[in-house]
Design goal:
Blueprint: H1 4-11, H2 17-28, H3 30-33, H4 38-44, H5 49-58, H6 64-74, H7 93-114, H8 117-129, E1 133-136, H9 140-154, E2 159-161, H10 165-172, E3 180-184, H11 191-202, E4 206-212, H12 217-221, E5 224-228, H13 238-260, H14 262-283
Parallel strand pairs: 1-2, 1-3, 3-4, 4-5
Helix pairs in contact: 4-5, 7-13, 8-13, 9-13, 10-11
Length: about 280
């Protein structure tokens, strides 16, 4: 289960004004919220019980009671620190190393805490049952797509990626319900990626999205949204952490697929290793 406080912090940018009030109070006074009913919680936040229920459901809970039960289970756990360690102009290299280490360790921990094993497992099953995987992403997200493409080629997964945006859109418009799409966009609003994902969804494809938590355009399109942490605006190394988070999620998908047919995976890895070693031998 994803820590609901982490989910709230990561998706704060996508909340309405009313939901922000509820979220802020919950984050600051979770011990009090546990002992409140929906009417009491709504009262201290100048909201309504119906809004409290909708807020809880938006976070993925059945209702306010379900949210409170999760908060109670988490009450003995220490919340991860927020991303506040920016790189400053007067930092020496040793300080930068230490800060980068802390930022990456926090990000890795948050990424794994945000993983929903059920959604991840369902995404893996869809991939294994599908005909082809089509990856969509531009810029840094395109690099993540390429990394997955290289790994998947080693174990015989039929995956495709085009760096050209027009080719991606043309491909998406011709897919069928047997194809699977992995769309990657940190913001969830990258126009090229959202358009490709929507075109594929309209054609009956299942869409797996890797994006930051929140109700972004891409997240709403996805059958299987896989969330990564959202960094604070002042974080100067945000692109580094979002890239790392995306790679971790793609690696989990890759491992799930590899485990689906371990004997075939091992045989494919051996075959691809042998031919690469033969090429290297010819160069000597």
């Amino acid at each position: 289960m994803v820590d609901c406080k982490i989910l709230i912090k990561a998706g704060m940018h996508s909340l309405t004004e009313t939901e922000r009030r509820l979220a802020s109070y919950l984050l600051e006074h979770s011990d009090k919220v546990i002992r409140m009913n929906a009417k009491e919680f709504a009262g201290v936040c100048n909201s309504s019980p119906a809004a409290v229920v909708r807020f809880s459901q938006k976070l993925g809970f059945q209702g306010f009671t379900d949210l409170k039960l999760t908060l109670a289970q988490e009450s003995g756990q220490e919340d991860p620190d927020a991303f506040q360690s920016v790189i400053r102009d007067n930092d020496d290299m040793e300080t930068i190393v230490r800060k980068a280490e802390r930022i990456h360790l926090q990000n890795i921990s948050l990424t794994y805490q945000m993983v929903n094993p059920t959604i991840l497992s369902q995404a893996v099953e869809e991939i294994c049952a599908g005909r082809h995987i089509h990856l969509f992403g531009v810029g840094a997200s395109g690099l993540l797509a390429m990394d997955f493409l290289y790994k998947s080629s080693r174990i015989g997964i039929p995956a495709f990626y085009h760096s050209d945006v027009h080719t991606n859109l043309a491909t998406a418009s011709l897919l069928t319900e047997k194809d699977i799409v992995i769309a990657i966009s940190y913001s969830g609003e990258t126009r090229e990626t959202v358009l490709a994902a929507k075109a594929a969804r309209d054609r009956g494809c299942k869409v797996i999205a890797i994006t930051r938590a929140g109700r972004s355009s891409l997240a709403r399109l996805a059958d299987y949204p896989l969330y990564i942490p959202g960094e604070e605006p002042e974080l100067r190394v945000g692109a580094m952490t979002s890239r790392t988070s995306g790679l971790l999620i793609l690696d989990l998908l890759y491992l799930g697929i590899a485990k689906h047919s371990p004997a075939q995976t091992e045989a494919n890895l051996r075959a691809t290793r042998d031919i690469i070693q033969a090429l290297q031998g010819n160069r000597e």
